[in-house]
Amino acid sequence: MKERKLRVMVAKPGLDGHDRGARIIARAFRDAGFEVVYTGLHQTPEEIVHAAIQEDVDMIGLSSLAGAHMYLFPRVLELLRENGVEDVAVIGGGVIPDDDITVLREAGMKEIFTPGSNLDGIVQWVRENIKPRS
Amino acid sequence: MSTAVEKVIAGDVRTVARLIRDIDDRVPGVREVLKELYVHTGKAYVVGITGAPGVGKSTLVDQMLNHLRKKGKTVGVLAVDPTSPFSGGAILGDRIRMQRHSLDEGVFIRSMATRGHFGGLTQSTRSAIDVLDAMGKDYVIVETVGVGQDEVDIVKSAQTTVIVVIPGMGDDIQAIKAGILEVGDIFVINKAERDGADKTQHELRQMIDMNQKKFEEGKWQPPILKVEAVFDKGVEELLVEIEKHRKYLLESTPGIGLAKKKERIREELAEMIKDRLFQEVLDRLDESGDFERAVDSIVAGELDPYTACDDVLSNKSGLLK
To answer: Measured between CB atoms, does B13 come within 8 Å of chain A?
Structure first.
């Protein structure tokens, strides 16, 4: 067997309609050689978690630019736990204040990327920290 | 029975999701599970949907899901998207159109990437169909972009193949893969609200009729349907035609359904042997480094590819004398 291929999901939770960032990230992940499942806009945390389970992804990337991250991100983490999924990492990106980042990290988010984050840096972070679940 | 097999049959979503991943990643041992699963397959009806990018395949599948679920049918969807030949990555976006079914336990949607020439796409998709079949889905819908031979091969494993085009594509269909007209059991002209739907329907009819060597009494005549998937128009009619085709395969004499099944199994088995042989030889060559060495020699002009192929096979695998 060759190495497993990394599968990730890029999702836009909530009513936020700004998906350019999410699309650019999805492309960067594709160019890095990952398989990227993109869910499109306006997803509920429930929809994201169900899709992630069906797609057997190793990581979920949540994008939020509309300020609802303090509800949406932890809700995704909570639903993963409720469904017995312990080994799928969740990262976030968007306009997220520093104070919130601390709280979100404590809640279980692996990493948060804010505006100005470098694409190569994000890809590098994923390569180093997320491995295909064996 | 192994635990994995039991869980798949019980419809456990995470086990199924994992198993399809293992198939895709070619995890050793997955074949043993598939062997055990095979006796539990054959109940699902497999529908292939293919067509050029942008004709609305995913939207059509989404509406079909809606209608089938209203009838109480459970459905598995395999949505195949191309892998980038440059990076090996893929953006799998077919789900976008189907996400409203994400919470429905009667629907299982899985995106798959083509993974290039060494990936054995046809093989893994067929195995994934078996898994969804064994998990108890009434229908399995396989959606592919009908551009490559692999994709055409995949839809051949479907019992009913639906080819989707849009108005204005009439003449261009000639240019679509040779052989795609022959595999179509049902044709859909999607986005039929646009100009030219009637003309396209007419052109398609002519092409299909020309293709069929002669009219035979009782032979399946591929219908051409005008559909507006976004507005949910014509989708129910499509399902009616799929059911008609299913009935035709079951009831026609002399046993077209059986003949088609036999043909399918012949192709699947040949494909499986080819795929397995290729993969095992390639794995061994990769390990020993012989493959790369042969490539280098050919590039350097020291060796021709024919001799290299003979060398590689005779030395390492002992397959050729």
So the answer is: yes
